[in-house]
Amino acid sequence: SLTTRLPKAGETILGQKFFIGFGGKGANQCVQSARLGAKTSLICKVGKDSFGYDYVENLKKNGISTAFVGQTTDAATGTASIIVNSEGQNVIVIVPGANLLLNFEDLKRASDVICKAKVLVCQLEITPAVSLEALKMARASGVKTLFNPAPALADLDPQFYTYSDIFCCNETEAEILTGIPVGNLEDAEKVGRMLLERGCKLVIVTLGAEGCMMISVEEPIPKHVPAGKVRAVDTT
């Protein structure tokens, strides 16, 4: 839903537009990679419902392999209710649904595509233990791993840090993981160093309009990558 501003608790406001689209952190990254020319495959689970069938068709239209997109009658397709204001800021409520039914057996069936990939991207919109197992499978085969800890967990399994070649979080996630509020580049650098100490090889902290901060074991001097000036339409 698009509105001029985000509602306060208990408040009802009028919006300008409502629409249904396709998304999910893993799927968004997969679609963008495919549009940039990469050969991509999505490993996930959706419901045997109208959203699920439409979702699979949309992936196919974007040139993504759906060989390991399972469908189930045990849960509905995962959804996210999103409100975006006129400045592009948003609030999101995720209902995982079938996402949480992706399991270790599904990973075993997809082991060939995981272990032969150049890059594996994982996040936390599925059961964390399943994401972690996928990272371990990829690492064992020499596949580069990229992990986005969202939605963030304060008690994230420490193994996520050691099995992530690239660990990418935003300011909110960084604070949940480290307890350090990120209000400027110096704060982001503190977060980056702490995550390196936990075992990450390369840390990226995204900073919205300020771009991002990068720091790695090989290049321990933090690097700020500024973002170009644009008018934000939708940051989801």
CATH T-level fold name of the largest domain: UDP-N-acetylmuramoyl-L-alanine:D-glutamate ligase
Structural class: alpha/beta
In the CATH hierarchy, what is the class of the largest domain? Alpha Beta
Summarize the helix and strand pattern as letters: HEHEEEHHEHEHEHHEEE
Query: Biggest sheet, strands in spatial order?
Result: 5-6-7-8-9-10
Entry summary:
One of its GO terms (cellular component) is cytosol. The protein is built from 8 helices and 10 strands.
Ordered list of secondary-structure elements with their pairings:
Layout: H1 25-35, E1 44-47, H2 50-61, E2 69-72, E3 79-84, E4 90-95, H3 104-109, H4 111-115, E5 119-123, H5 128-140, E6 144-148, H6 159-162, E7 166-170, H7 171-178, H8 185-197, E8 202-206, E9 212-216, E10 223-225
Parallel strand pairs: 1-2, 5-6, 6-7, 7-8
Antiparallel strand pairs: 3-4, 8-9, 9-10
Walkthrough of the structure:
- This is RBSK Ribokinase.
- One of its GO terms (cellular component) is cytosol.
- One of its GO terms (molecular function) is ATP binding.
- The chain has 236 residues and is an alpha/beta fold.
- The protein has two domains: 102 residues, UDP-N-acetylmuramoyl-L-alanine:D-glutamate ligase (3-Layer(aba) Sandwich); 115 residues, 3-Layer(aba) Sandwich (UDP-N-acetylmuramoyl-L-alanine:D-glutamate ligase), CATH 3.40.1190.20.
- It contains eight helices and ten strands.
- The strands form three sheets. A six-stranded mixed beta sheet has the order 5-6-7-8-9-10, with helices on both faces.
- The longest helix is centred in the middle third of the chain and has 13 residues.
- The chain is globular, with a radius of gyration of 18 Å.
- The model has no long low-confidence stretch (mean pLDDT 95).
